Protein: oligo-1,6-glucosidase
Organism: Paenibacillus profundus
Amino acid sequence: MKRTWWKEAVVYQVYWRSFYDTNGDGYGDLEGVIQKLDYIRELGADVIWLNPCFGSPDVDNGYDIADYRSVMPKAGTVDTFDRLLKEVHARGMKLIMDLVVNHTSDQHPWFTESRSAKDHPKRDYYIWRKEPNNWRSYFTPSTWEYDEATGEYYFHSFAVQQPDLNWDNPRVREEIYDMMRFWLEKGIDGFRMDVINLLAKQAGFPDAANPDDISYLGNNPGIHEYLQEMHDKVLKHYDIFTVGEIPFVTPEDGVLYVGEERGELHTLFHFEVCDYMAHWDMQRFKEIQKRWYEGMWGKGWNSQFLNNHDHTRVVTRFGNDTTYRVESAKCFATLLHTLPGMPYIYQGEEIGMTGVRFDSIDDYNDIAMKNKYKEEVGKGRDPQEVFESLLHLARDNSRTPMQWDDSSNGGFTDGTPWIKVNPNYRDINVSAALSDPNSVFYYYKTLIQLRKQHPVMVYGSYEPLLEEHEQIYAYTRSLDGEKWLVVLNISEQTVACELPASVSLEGKELLIGNYAVESDAGELRLEPYEARVYRLA
Ligand code: TEU
Ligand code: CA
């Protein structure tokens, strides 16, 4: 497989509003990112993915853009952005930005014009119909919102305040391509493309048999033509990296988006783990990895992530965030870095930050959660029961401020944070992690260094072992005669396990592990959440 810089990279996701606040307004800002770049460099990440920081009324934390070429005042100015980019490059790192072009804010001037009159030249920048169909959106009971001004409905895949652009309209596409060039000409290193497979809509918007399965929103005919045009007109003219956020995708469709010869995207995020596996499910996880490996290996490149700004933190969701917090954080870190695909680290993951549970719906901010709460309570359900049902997967779980030290608000802000800090910041914070050689932070750092030294972690083929095992996940990675064994106990029990006879650990080098190992001879016994990586050959 062709070797490229981005296949070898580790990405660190910066949710800037919760990263570091430098002016006391309670929001993290781009200046804060600049001040913490040496921290990210110390970890060893190669690429920073910055969540959207464009002009926005901020109903969906920046995913509702009203001005694509400006920076929202909470984040800073275009000038701060330019400095950030310069400082990232000065440290030998790269920066990718969020590209949110399935929808805009309803405050975008295009939409103001579009909704003003049926015969406005920009009417067709968005999608208007006389009658709604029965589809649900991500955040609301209908994808259609009635607009009094002209007596028609507009289409929105997310919130009412996020009308979908009409990608069928070539003028819309040209506007977006121009805007992309604006940022690329500044020298950014690529895009994380928000719900990019939603751009093409189903012709005629037929009613769905089951409106709760919203997969009708994505992967519709026309999507690959749009992406190939985007590639041809914009992407291929720059040395950049792209990752598409692609819900409802199968490996067969995946290769259509990221196939190396197709001229669309470089990599993708699929959501088989994060959207459909609420709790750890060993068999399911193994099956997902195997199916994606078999479907994509040798054809297109994948990504690995276990949480992000939309998904509960990994130790809380899949590991154990009390007794085995450190062990499970390191165990999942090992998994993330040794499976095939680019690893994504979400800020705070590298110190084992946990998901939060606030006491009241008023402590939450996320529009997805609040809309769902209103909808369910509106049906007459008990508010407390609804609230509790939403806690485990609430998107704000992972959005609480970065915990830098044990001072008030975890050192995130001198003001009042936009969302409460997780009360465990006195114990779990960057400063504590940096002064403990056994911390989760240094474990991540070591994994990243290993990747730099050993191409087998990137390009090695993947073979699962012990496929039926309920607690142990084991696999090898092999490249050019080199062979590594990864063995993980993803459970709270001590587990004795028998490797296939062909695999002997005798005298084999332990490359990394999260427990002190006394002897590699004889039976393999793994402590709760123990992770080991051996070089077999
Ligand atoms: O998320 C897309 C999206 O809604 C899912 O793929 C995601 O897994 C879901 O939130 C889980 O319930 C993107 C952004 O990451 C998100 O923050 C935005 O709200 C959304 O697009 C709309 O732009
Ligand atoms: Ca600020």
Notes: The CA atoms of residues 59 and 367 lie 7 Å apart. The domain at 10-100+305-334+341-356+400-453 is CATH 3.20.20.80 (TIM Barrel).
